Structure formats: structure tokens, C-alpha cells
Amino acid sequence: MQKILVTGGAGFIGSNFVHYLVANTDANVTVLDKLTYAGNPESISTLPEDRVSLVKGDIADAALVDGLVAESDVVVHYAAESHNDNSLHDPRPFLDTNIIGTYTLIEAARKHDTRFHHISTDEVYGDLELDDPERFTEQTPYNPSSPYSSTKAGSDLLVRAWVRSFGLRATISNCSNNYGPYQHVEKFIPRQITNVIDGVRPKLYGKGENVRDWIHANDHSSAVLAIIDKGRIGETYLIGADGEKNNKEVVELILEHMGQSSDAYDHVIDRPGHDLRYAIDSTKLREELGWQPSFSNFHAGIEDTIKWYRDNESWWRPQKAATEARYKEQGQ
Ligand code: NAD
Ligand code: TDX
User: CATH for 3-183+215-243+278-300, among 3.30.200.20, 2.40.240.20, 3.40.50.720, 3.40.190.80?
Assistant: First the structure.
């Protein structure tokens, strides 16, 4: 039975992975999470206590991290400051967690020769034109735009250097935009769903032409497990499910599924440096590891997600007013 340390396991995607591990493996899971504004212990509180334990702490705390990594067979590193808009207003926590935190973890993994998987994002590759026939591949040069994506790029490069210089047994995955339950209401899809529940019109940045390549969080989790089981050490795998949609289409879809007129949204000021389009070519992951996404119907996935936010208001309500107050200050 493997002992897996999941950093950021009380966040959106990390908690999805912890649920996925409990359902699909016999692993024992320890979650290390600082429980920032983005972490919620309720996201994993229904899981059996003999399978999952939560340690509240910072991934940049070297002594704490050393002890936890020493007891683990595998580390899966999700913890991060994750929101682009926040990084534009206060970049410092992004450096502390995404750069120093990752450095602290890989130093411990090096010392204890522990298998390490680093979770990253397609945003490290910058953006594409709307009509570019190419998509991101593992060979695309790094070209991050925001403080968030530049710290994620920095953390990826640290992991690569530790593989080459110190023989760290690591893999990296760069995934596209995730959606599904337990996502913080600051993010695009849950923000708009909970706005509609509150009788507030959705807010579209700029013209709404920006394209994101959506993947259900469960498909991200199944891909990460495949990489841990079968991925080659030192390799990077791009994770995506061919889900390109522009933001306007997504807002219209949410409004339609929630019984509103599809034009009942407002345009607000654009995000500075707003990446235009992300698109992932996941051929390597599919051909080398035989992975396939199971959520191919975005409409059905959005419908389930809307239902989850309707049914789980107690999970998101405490964060909603403060999140909207922050956006209001920024004119968004
Ligand atoms: P999230 O903000 O929902 O969760 C982040 C979690 O990390 C929270 O539980 C938070 O408490 C924890 N955390 C933050 N700083 C910490 C620290 N210093 N020490 C310990 N824990 C800390 O983020 P998410 O959307 O679940 O993203 C998780 C990972 O996936 C990130 O590395 C992100 O870059 C990556 N990613 C996200 C997406 C996406 O669409 N959301 C896509 C690709 C990659
Ligand atoms: O109110 C909004 N209106 C709007 O038009 C918000 C919150 C966002 N947007 C736009 C900006 C983006 O084009 O929607 C798109 C998605 O925005 P976010 O949910 O903030 O995601 P994004 O910036 O694309 O980054 C996400 O995917 C990659 C995650 O937050 C990152 O952690 C991940 O690395």
C-alpha cells in the first residue's frame, strides 16, 4: 500500500485527486495544506479517516516538509497560489508558495529519494492567436504572461533542473483549465453560476473572445494517476481534453442552463495582459500512457456543475461576498 503526500489537497483540483485516489486505489493519503482563503477542509471531510489525514502547514516550512516527505512513497504537488487576477494585485505570495514552496519540497524529495510529481499549467506557454492551427505541445517554448504563470514556469524549471542535476525522480504535467465541483467562486465558471443564483448578471472580461481549453477535474485526476503509475521519469506530459470554448460561449451556456436569457451578462474591464487562447495537444499522454478523458460532453459537465453549486451553497456561500467585494474594487 502506497503512502502518498498530496500538497494543496484541500483546494479545487487537489481535493478532486484525493477523492479519486480513495475511490480508485488503496493508497494512504496525507494532505499538506496551509488552508489559505482557497483551501477548505470540508472538500475532503467526507472521506474515511483511516485513508486520508490532513496536516495544516506551509509547503515552505522545511522542517515540516522534511518529516512528511520522509514518510511518503510519492509526493504529488498541487499547492499553489492559483489565481491570475490576485497575482496582478499582490504577486508576493505567488513567489513564496509557487517558487520557494516548490524548492522546499524538491529539496526534501531529493534528500529522501522520493518519487515526485509536479502539477503545472498550460499558461507557462503563453498564449496563441485565435486562428493559430498549432496547439501547445511538450516542445513549445516557455513564454508566461502573468505573475502567476511566471511563478509556475519558474517552479517547472526548478523541477527540471533537480531532475538533471540531482537525479530527482520527478515528472511534470501541464494541464488546461479545469472545471467541476469544489472550485473557488473567484474562478470564472463558479463565479458566474453563483452570480446567477444570487440574481447578479455574469461578468465577462473585455469582449469575451478569449478561449480556454476546458477539462473536467476528474479527467485531470485520472491523467495524473496514469503519469504516476506509468510515466517516464524526467518527462513532461500535457493534459487536455480538446475542450476549446470562448468565454462568451461559456457564459451563454451557463445562462441557458439556468433558465436565463443568453444575453443577460455584462462586459467589464479586461484583465491586464489577458492571455487570448490556450489549446493543448495531449497526443503524448494519450499514445504513450493510453489515457483518455471520460467527460466528453461539456454541456452535461456544466449542467452537473451548476447542480452541485445549487446543492452545496453552504460550501461556497462564506467566500462569496468577500470575493465579489474584491472584484468590485478592481472594476470587475
Ligand atoms: P486552488 O487555489 O483551488 O487550491 C490551492 C490549494 O493550495 C489550497 O487548498 C491552498 O490552501 C493550498 N496552498 C496555497 N498555498 C499553500 C502553501 N504555501 N502551503 C500549503 N498549501 C498551500 O488551486 P487549484 O485550482 O486547485 O490548482 C491546484 C494546482 O493545479 C496549482 O498548482 C495550479 O497551478 C494547477 N493548475 C490549475 C488549473 C485550474 O484550472 N484550476 C489548471 C492547470 C493547473
Ligand atoms: O469574472 C470573470 N470573467 C471573465 O471573463 C473571471 C473570473 C474570468 N474571466 C475570464 C478570464 C479568462 O479568460 O475567464 C477566463 C477564465 O478565467 P479564470 O477562471 O480566472 O482562469 P484562467 O485565468 O484561465 O486560469 C485558470 O486556468 C489555468 C486557473 O485559474 C489557473 O490556476 C490555471 O493554471
Answer: 3.40.50.720
